[in-house]
C-alpha cells in the first residue's frame, strides 16, 4: 500500500488517427477523422455539420500524414522501449481492417500491419493495450447507414471485433471497446460519426446512437471472452470530477447531474443496466430508445472487466448566472474557472488532486479495477539553440499527478497501470494542430504539415525513464 504495486503497467497512449498517417495506403478506407480539417474549420464538422464525404483540395487534413507512425513504428517503439514501457496503448483503425465497414472479407494488408506492430512490441517486451474504436468510423458507414444512429452498425462492429480478436488472440490481452464513449454527446461526429440534417432531434439521435454503441460494446466483451479466455476487456470514460462552485444545494445537485451525464455510459457498461436517473432523463426529455428484445440481457450478461479513463482536468459548475460568466476551457467540457487552481496554455484547469478524487469516485462507484489510460500536459514546446526541449513544466505536471495517483492507490483504489497521453508528439484531436505537444519525444512537424518528422528526446524522456525504472519511487 506504500507505493505502486509490482507489475504496474507503465507506458504511453496513442491513437491510429493521430499518429499513423498513410490514410489510404494498403487498402485503408476513409474514416471520419480523415474529413476533419485543421483549426477553425474543424469544430463545426466535429459537431456533425459535414459538407462533403470526400476530402476537399482546398483544405489541409492533418490525419492524412500525421506523424507517419505507419512507416516509422519500429523507430518509435524502440524509443518507447528505451524509456522502459511495460505497455503501449494504441488503437486499430476499423477502416484498415474493413475499408468500407461492411466488406464481406477483411483487408489482409491492414491485419498484417497490426500483426507487425504487435510483434515489434513483443520484441521489446511491451504489452499492447488496444482500443477497438478510437474516433474513426469508416466514412462509408456514415454515408450508407447514418453511422451509429443505425442498428446495423451493432452487427458490423461485432464482426470487426470478432475478426481482430481472432487474429490477435495470442498477441493482445488488454482491450478497450470505445474511446471516451461519453464524448458522443459533446462531439457527435467524432464520437459516433453522426451528421445531422436541419430540424432533426439531435438529442434523440445521440442517445439512440449511444444505446447502439453500448450494445455493441457488450457484444464485443462477449466475443472477446469467448475467443480470448484470459482477456481483460474494458470501457473508457473521459473523466474529471465536477465540483460545485459553492455549498448551495442547487450547485451540488448540478455538479452531480454533470457527472452523471458521463457516468451513465459506464453505469451501463459496468453494471449492465440503465440507471434510474437516466430513465428519468429520457422520460422528461421525450427520448424514446428503440431497443431489441434481447438488449437488456446482452447488457446485463456482458459487463466490462475494468474501467479505463482519461484525466486532464476537473470542472466547476454553478447555477448562479453571474458566476457562470467566468468560463475557462477543459477538453470539450465547459467549466467555470476554479479560483484555487492554475490553468494550462489552453485554459485547461491543472488539478493533480482531482485525479485522486476522480479515481476514488470511480472505484467507490464501480468496485472494478481502474486504468489511467490518458493523462498529460499539452504545451507549446520550443527547442533551444541546441535543438533541445527543456520541458520542466511537463515534468512538474506529471510529477504532481503521479503523486496523487500513488495516494489513490494507498487509499485502496485498484489501478492496473498508467499510460500518459501522447508519449510522442501527435496531431491534436481538438484543433488538428501540432503545436499542442504532449510527448516525451519531439517530432519535427508544424501545423501546416511541414517538417522532417525527425524524432528528438525531450528532457522529460529521461525523467519518465527513471520513473518507470524505479516503479514510481523516484518521481
TrEMBL record:
Question: Where are the annotated coiled coils located?
Answer: none
Q: Key word Hydrolase present in the record?
A: yes
- Under which EC number(s) is this enzyme classified? 3.2.1.86
Cell inner membrane among keywords: no
Residues at the active site = 374
Q: Any idea which UniProt keywords this protein has?
A: Glycosidase, Hydrolase
Molecular function terms in GO for this entry?
A: 6-phospho-beta-glucosidase activity
Read off the PROSITE patterns from this record: GLYCOSYL_HYDROL_F1_1, GLYCOSYL_HYDROL_F1_2
Which Gene Ontology cellular component annotation is one that this UniProt entry carries?
Answer: cytosol
- Gene3D superfamilies, per this entry? Glycosidases
Q: Which family does it belong to?
A: Belongs to the glycosyl hydrolase 1 family.
Name used for this protein in its record: 6-phospho-beta-glucosidase
Question: Which gene holds the coding sequence for this protein?
Answer: ascB
Amino acid at each position: 500500500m506504500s507505493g505502486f504495486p509490482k507489475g504496474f503497467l507503465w507506458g504511453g497512449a496513442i491513437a491510429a488517427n493521430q499518429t499513423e498517417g498513410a490514410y489510404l495506403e494498403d487498402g485503408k478506407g476513409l474514416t471520419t477523422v480523415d474529413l476533419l480539417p485543421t483549426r477553425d474549420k474543424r469544430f463545426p464538422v466535429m459537431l456533425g455539420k459535414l459538407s462533403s464525404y470526400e476530402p476537399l483540395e482546398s483544405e489541409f487534413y492533418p490525419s492524412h500524414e500525421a506523424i507517419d507512425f505507419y512507416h516509422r513504428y519500429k523507430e518509435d517503439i524502440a524509443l518507447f522501449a528505451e524509456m522502459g514501457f511495460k505497455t503501449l496503448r494504441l488503437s486499430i483503425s476499423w477502416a484498415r481492417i474493413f475499408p468500407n465497414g461492411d466488406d464481406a472479407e477483411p483487408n489482409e494488408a491492414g491485419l498484417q500491419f497490426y500483426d507487425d506492430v504487435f510483434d515489434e512490441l513483443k520484441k521489446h517486451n511491451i504489452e499492447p493495450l488496444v482500443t477497438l474504436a478510437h474516433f474513426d468510423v469508416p466514412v462509408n458507414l456514415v454515408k450508407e447507414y447514418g453511422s451509429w444512429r443505425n442498428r446495423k452498425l451493432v452487427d458490423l462492429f461485432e464482426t470487426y471485433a470478432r475478426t481482430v480478436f481472432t487474429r490477435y488472440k495470442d498477441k493482445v490481452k488488454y482491450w478497450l471497446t470505445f474511446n471516451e464513449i461519453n464524448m458522443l454527446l459533446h462531439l457527435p461526429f467524432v464520437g459516433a460519426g453522426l451528421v445531422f440534417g436541419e430540424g432533426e432531434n439531435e438529442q434523440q439521435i445521440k442517445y439512440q446512437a449511444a444505446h447502439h454503441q453500448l450494445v455493441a460494446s457488450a457484444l464485443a466483451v462477449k466475443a472477446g471472452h469467448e475467443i480470448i479466455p484470459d482477456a481483460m476487456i474494458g470501457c473508457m470514460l473521459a473523466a474529471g470530477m465536477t465540483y460545485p462552485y459553492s455549498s448551495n444545494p442547487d450547485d451540488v445537485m448540478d455538479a452531480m447531474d454533470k457527472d452523471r451525464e458521463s457516468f451513465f455510459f459506464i453505469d451501463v457498461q459496468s453494471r449492465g443496466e440503465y440507471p434510474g436517473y437516466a430513465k428519468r432523463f429520457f422520460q422528461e426529455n421525450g427520448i424514446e430508445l428503440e431497443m431489441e428484445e434481447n438488449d437488456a440481457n446482452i447488457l446485463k450478461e456482458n459487463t466490462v472487466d475494468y474501467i479505463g479513463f482519461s484525466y486532464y482536468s476537473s470542472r466547476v459548475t454553478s447555477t448562479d448566472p453571474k458566476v457562470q460568466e467566468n468560463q475557462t476551457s477543459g477538453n470539450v467540457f465547459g467549466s467555470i474557472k476554479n479560483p484555487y487552481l492554475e490553468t494550462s496554455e489552453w485554459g485547461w484547469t491543472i488539478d493533480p488532486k482531482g485525479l485522486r478524487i476522480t479515481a476514488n469516485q470511480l472505484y467507490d462507484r464501480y468496485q472494478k479495477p481502474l486504468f489511467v489510460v490518458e493523462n498529460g500536459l499539452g504545451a507549446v514546446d520550443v527547442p533551444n539553440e541546441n535543438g533541445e526541449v527543456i520541458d520542466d513544466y511537463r515534468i512538474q505536471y506529471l510529477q504532481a499527478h503521479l503523486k496523487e495517483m500513488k495516494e489513490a492507490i494507498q487509499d485502496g483504489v485498484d489501478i492496473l497501470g498508467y499510460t500518459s497521453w501522447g508519449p510522442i508528439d501527435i496531431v491534436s484531436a481538438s484543433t488538428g494542430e501540432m503545436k499542442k505537444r504532449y510527448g516525451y519525444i519531439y517530432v519535427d512537424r508544424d501545423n501546416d504539415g511541414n517538417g522532417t518528422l525527425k524524432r528528438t528526446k525531450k528532457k522529460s524522456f529521461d525523467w519518465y525513464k527513471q520513473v518507470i525504472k524505479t516503479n514510481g519511487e523516484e518521481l
